[in-house]
């Protein structure tokens, strides 16, 4: 089996440990340059990053490889992942590159690509690039000295993205009188997100806007929504918005401090679109991780939920194939295809704020649509990702739990695409049973997969 560099969301790992080493990043730049240049001169590449200290290392290595293979590189510095998707389209670039490990701690980093239309690369393209990077006999098709690429710093990128986001908000509405607690996770959105909301008229109380290279996602952001929940109540705010390190996911809380995940946000947005006849086929796209309550909610309102594998790229692929306009993940990746080609936490927040302003009702009244089934998700660290069909003892544990649930719950067993982890999830109406059944499967995984 060929080795893959890329997981469900690009290349990711701990800095200076394979595969996240300067050598691999350099070869990745060479490989991407060779693949996308395709014999032509000076195609454009936009490179952005989050606020991790190691971003400097990988930015420099990628730039060297891309320029060496004849690509002109445009460096925009710390910017959200969805901003790079937008800027790739906006600047008519041939490739977008993001250096980020999203919600992971600072010691991790990652690299992911967008094509010229702002979509993440399909598996087959990533595999071809992987073969070039990992191939011991790879011959680089270097251009002559006069045709190597140049690198440029682009200073107006934040302004372009801010204008784009403001234009996604209804022109006849403002956020005047709205008080917002905003947590940027000391990440990529710290320099743009507050300005978008303030320029639309909101009063913004910020947290997580002082990155030092080491504090990204550190007890803040979308993984720690209790921070905004507490501050919203203390500040008397109307809503709390929590982004992750690269700002492609969103978790919110209402004015009472009640936390809403991606499923609950999707339910609200899907219903609003269905009421306006703006959801083609009344279809919402989500992953296998979304709660059963979301599936039942869509059925009750005459819609349907299409599930995909985990990863917002797979959600986007299904949306493009089916002509859907709304999709996302329970974790907070939300895709509004009428506005964007990838998950954008701040854009999603603006759509939620738009609904609040149009309905002139607080979020607590709008969002009480979904009562999620009790769900337990536990991680089992593994040395090797053994195919589950080669672990009969684990399969037997899952079979017993599914039989006990009698169709009134779900079991999901999957490997993480970015970590050496097996994820075990059980859903059912009885929280005590959910906990017990999850423990049974985890015990089998710990015994036979470690």
Automatic annotation (TrEMBL):
Keywords: Isomerase, Magnesium, Metal-binding, Phosphoprotein. Its EC number is 5.4.2.10. SUPFAM superfamilies: Phosphoglucomutase, C-terminal domain, Phosphoglucomutase, first 3 domains. Binds 1 Mg(2+) ion per subunit. Its cofactor is Mg(2+). Activated by phosphorylation. One of its GO terms (biological process) is peptidoglycan biosynthetic process. NCBIfam families: glmM, PRK10887.1. This is Phosphoglucosamine mutase.
